[in-house]
Amino acid sequence: MAALTDAIRAAWVADAARHAPMPAADRCCALALAVLALTGLTLHAVGGYHAAFHAVNGLAPGLPRWLWQGLTMLGDERAAIALALLLARRHPHVLYTILVAALLATLANRGIKLGADQLRPPAVLPPDAFHLLGPANKRLSFPSGHTVTAFVFFGVLAYHFRRWRLPLLAAAAAAGVSRVAIGVHWPIDVIAGAFIGLASAWAAVHLAPRLRRGSSPYLHLGVVGLGVVACVLLVVDDSGYDSSLWIRLPIAVAGVGAVVWSYLIAPVRAQAAIAEDG
């Protein structure tokens, strides 16, 4: 156990040095946030809170139900935690940054949701007026929590892994669009969720290195344990998206597999190799 905790602490320090804040990425974040804010304000000014809903929701018949539900699961908190397990051992500082971003985003998201308490499409529109591909939730529409989660997770990764920036942000955007296509959010909810998620990710990138608690191997292992629980819950509970097992199951299996390999098999093999050499 001591060898594992020492290795986690050393990996955190090395990962933090590799993933320091970058001015170019900061400028990209600032520009993206400005575009999101301008788009949301313009949309609201032109068409009100419900603007562009039917245009985006009308995309639903163009793709199968299982694909829309799979895309929306990319914004599920359990899926994000499970996916984070894939990089936990090699990139513990990035994992900690995601954790800090998630805490910031949760505070903002829950506070705004409870304060705004906006009605969702199923509470406003008659059933035959739009496409509904998931549970008919009716309250706490603004902002979109799934979109917040997607932009927190993929936003932190996009900041640190420049080569994958566009695919990562595209995945977050797809999760957001799916919330409207499925019929449970208004487009402005999604834009606000993207703003909160990306802003939280950006803030966490600069805040996480200052919080030395992130180098604690016990906190790290606690987050990993939470991730394993999330993997189990991801499989047993579909959250009303009954056609999403095709993406939930691989994510959960990959997350648990990463933990078993990185924290059980690999350390044992390393110790055996050291003993052999000795």
Description:
The protein has 278 residues and is mainly α. It has twelve helices and no strands. The protein has helices spanning 2-18, 23-47, 53-57, 65-73, 77-84, 92-116, 121-124, 145-160, 165-181, 187-207, 217-236, 245-277. It is globular and about 70 Å long. The model has no long low-confidence stretch (mean pLDDT 93).
Give a short overview.
By secondary structure, this protein is mainly alpha-helical. It is 72% helix and 0% strand.
Q: Major sheet, described briefly?
A: none
Low-confidence stretches: none
| N-to-C SSE string, H for helix and E for strand | HHHHHHHHHHHH
Structure summary, number of beta strands:
0
SS content category: mainly alpha
In DSSP terms (H or I, runs of 4 or more residues), the helix count works out at 12
Instruction: Estimate the helix proportion, in percent.
Output: over 70%
- The separation of the N and C termini measures 20 Å
Mean pLDDT over the full residue set: 93
As a whole number of angstroms, the C-alpha radius of gyration is: 20 Å
Shape: globular
Strand content: under 5%
List keywords for this structure.
single chain, 278 residues, mainly alpha, 12 helices, 0% strand
List the helices and strands and how they pair.
Elements: H1 2-18, H2 23-47, H3 53-57, H4 65-73, H5 77-84, H6 92-116, H7 121-124, H8 145-160, H9 165-181, H10 187-207, H11 217-236, H12 245-277
